[in-house]
Give the backbone structure.
Amino acid sequence: MIGNLPYFAVAALVIFGLFGAIFGRNLVKIAVAVSLVEAATNLFIIALGYRNGGSIPVFTQAGGYADYMVLPTPQALTLTAIVIGMATTALLLSLIMLLYRHYGTLDVREIRRLRG
Amino acid sequence: MTIWREHLPALLLALPLLGAFAAPVAGHFGSRARNVWFVSITALTALVAWGLWQQVSASGIVVYVMGAEHSRLTLPSGMALPVRILLEVDAMSALMAFMGAIAALAGALFSVRSMERFSGLDQFVALYLLLTAGMLGMEITGDLFNFFVFLEIASVASCGLVAFWRDRPEAVEASFKYMLLSTVGALMVLVAVAFFYGRYNTVAMAGVASHLQLGLAEKAALVFLVSALAMKCGTVPMHMWTPDAYAEAPAGVTCLLVAVSQAALYGLFRVCFTLYGASLGSSAVAWALIIMGLLSMFIGVTMAVIQKDVKRLMAYHSVSQVGYMLLGMGVALLVLSDPQKMAAYGAMALQGAVYHLFNYTMYKGLLFLVAGALAYAAGSRNLNDLGGLGRRMPQTAALFVIAAAAIAGLPPFNGFVSKLMIYESSFAVHPLLPVVAMVTSMLTLASFVKVFQTAFLGPEKAALREVQEVPGFMRGGMALLAVVVLVLSLFPTWSVGSFVEPAARALMDRAAYVGAVLGGGL
Amino acid sequence: MRPLSVIVRTVCNAFAWFVAVFGVYVIVHGHLSPGGGFQGGAVVATFMALLLVSHGATKCLGWVRTNFFYAFEHVGLLTFIAAGFLGIGVTFFYNSLALSGGLFGSAVPLGPNGGSLNTSGTIALMNCAVGIEVVGGLSMILLYMVQGVFHIDKPTLRGKEEAGHDR
């Protein structure tokens, strides 16, 4: 049961993040909530690669150093996901700055010129 | 040339990427150098896509492994599952890539002239080519995580392009909404890919497809994938971003955005038919797709009839046309495990959906380019400000008539053939389905008659006395799409036989897709 | 708003250079220890962030022009795609430099060892390229955001108004 703790953390983070993104009223809070969901997804992928008792996946033909390694592929996938998350966060924050300049407010209920 | 034939799939991705990275360098030498670079890269990409389509239709599925000792070595030294990133191009992928490359070329030809007045064009060209690379990557990849990466590349690039006119507050608002939805959707796709990795220790599509057994994790992954990809196409419960983003983007970009959302629809085809296929179990997903298709058709067209902004009207029509494809796909998915019904009407439904996808990308791109031409010439997107432009812009009016007749499904044009296939096949499932589709078609015709009459016919407005026909490059981009629409309309049997039927057969043939990769090695 | 205290500004100023060196270490050793192009590039971009914190936006924008970082970005991107094309004789992104004795071409030592820097071919080259690119990109993002927050107009844009509407 204790080995499943990362997955409970992932579920909690996803729920908090989605709640903030759907019901948030401040634009910056929405961006932070999306960032939270990204963090949860990255944690999920990394936690999937862990093997109990595995060593770090850096040596070639390590012999008696360890029986098996932790899987390296999810680490590469998570790195790519983190980079993508950084790009989307940067774009979201820049758009929020532009929206503040145009509308004068960060309240999501006021930014509704496109309707119907 | 024969040396490059082996590397065509990699070239299809490398060319737009190289173009995007070198666009600011080309822009350093002046705007003419940048325009030449822009058009030549998109034209070369279209040529490579055509070459790839010919190679696939001649010799079957093409597999390309990035960084291996030989381009088809998927399982090196006795491994059971592929380890490198692989591109797997079957007839459906090749058709989608060809279609996307043509849309990109048309949009590029149009943008060269229509965006002249604005600054920041180096970054515009770089983002446009990145968006093309992302779309093509989504269509030819054989690896689920690679699909996610290209999906995100396309989303970020398209959000940057939608917000290009950043001193219009509506454009920035549209881009923010689109970015938010895209990010959450793509994260759901990533969670689904993580589910697959956790269960099968591979992210290659062929690997997952060959080992797939329907359990709780796979069902959850299916729900995530279907909802996220349907959101990217503009399906009804999640369509709110489509009218905003399509209307506020520059016209050449909207032409490409249409092709990008079709790449997401291609992803949906891949997930439902190749990844899951006959092991889908119950018909819940098929009926969900059919119902989403019906809702999209109806809500899209009813919201479109009342619009005053030309591009927003056309964007709502986008939502409704995607409904047709989802209807055809749902019908085919419903009878996928029953070979008799599949031969009777299921295969026709799938062909109708794929043919409608091809037609839609072409005529919808043309419609958006015409709307951009109207905005360029007359200075406004609002139908209340336009009037009597048919006399001053006859060629644009003729191109609009071709596109509007195609979308409304009038008989000589290609929209009619694909819609007929969808009507006939959905009638065999339930008689109500083609009724909704036909009502949508009539309302589509009504709204485009309204647009034509308001914008092109009627008395000339005083403010529009100085309007001239749009420049040659813009007409060239529109003419390219119109020529493809006409070819598809005048030769329907040839088009269906050589483009659509191999694509539909490739979608149904799950074993061939898996065997091309796992049969592996030289 | 009160300005930041002297301690914060001095420490940031001093540590910025150490952070830059550490970032370059992380980039170059990407194929041996955790790190690599993006991670090291992000660490080097904190150099720019620490300088912005310690000296203030106006002063920093007076020192660097964003064109400097554009050059970083383009050099990095073009090197990356060129490294992909290096092995095109075999496949795209083929690692033609590994185990070939030239640049980054030594053999990988087996078993637990300290790690040899001269190995892994195009992987190390692409790490450096991505590192340079990320330094340029993230520093530019920081500079543009600081300009946007404090409404500092660049002198080159004045007089060249952007027409943002359809007409």
